[in-house]
Amino acid sequence: MSAPLLEVEGLSTTIGAARVVDGVRLELARGETFALLGESGCGKSMTALSLMRLLPPAGRIEAGAVRLDGVDLLRLSEAEMRRVRGARLAMIFQEPQTSLNPVMRIGAQIAEAVRLHAGAAAAVDARVLELLRAVGIPDPERRAREYPHQLSGGMKQRVMIAMALAGDPELLIADEPTTALDVTIQAQVLGLLKTLQQQSGLAVLLITHDLGVVAETAERLAVMYAGEIVETATTAAFFAAPAHPYSRMLLESLPTADKRGARLAAIPGRVPPLDRAFTGCRFVERCPRALARCVEQLPPWHEAGAGHWVRCHLWDADLVDTATVAEPAV
Ligand code: SF4
Ligand code: MG
Fold this sequence. Notes:
- It contains twelve helices and twelve strands.
- By secondary structure, it is α/β, with parallel strands linked by helices.
- Iron/sulfur cluster binds at residues 244-245, 281, 283-284, 287, 289-291, 294, 299, 312-314.
């Protein structure tokens, strides 16, 4: 396998006293769609903002490496990082209307993004129309002259994607890109991301709490809980045999026929506050399988299959083969 496009190692981020990202490790291949899955408040968005180095003012990256093509982004100066943002990795957010300037025409906003990367001399107008076409906006000449309020939610998200693509990035981080959209438009936007990927080899880090979106778009995924990754697998292996009790509960709480739009908040309890120290498993208060050791000991990683890793005491060698793991956990 060729070297990964993105390698995240031991990434830890704090917001004030809360450790919102703790020891996160991820690898993305070129052209791959990788989903980061979890309830809200699990640290998914903070992971993404750490990769972009766009944390809120109280945010601080405490440790780790974020290597893009072998270069650790955390070691770049702010000026160097500005040149990487947009040109090599770009990000789109859940609410396109909050990112678009309401009093500026669509074409002018995309032109601004184009100029940022290509300089004023380039054929900016032609590039703007090319980007609008690439994201499937019909009649781009007319749309370029419109204002955001004249566009539907789906069209606005397409505009955001066009702006994100202006610098021809290799990696697009999409934070809940379709959550604010209705199901039909959501499918269209996901379809668009897939097409762009096939055409340009773009890698996508998709942040979502929607299992249906994961099933349809991602090749591999990681499940995040309370700031940590607790399971990572191919999407196929995950849906066939989720290994972590949290993952199993998420999947089993869903109807089997149609997982689209299913929200992860369906399981009882809530994510623990992240401003405290953890001695054992962070999921222990919600876990129906919890053992005595889960309160006191951090669960280590275990291999549940090829490329399938889980962080849970149930996979300790002395417990595996006792049928506690093989049977569905809940
Ligand atoms: Fe449940 Fe223990 Fe596994 Fe945590 S380590 S998920 S509490 S069984
Ligand atoms: Mg989020």
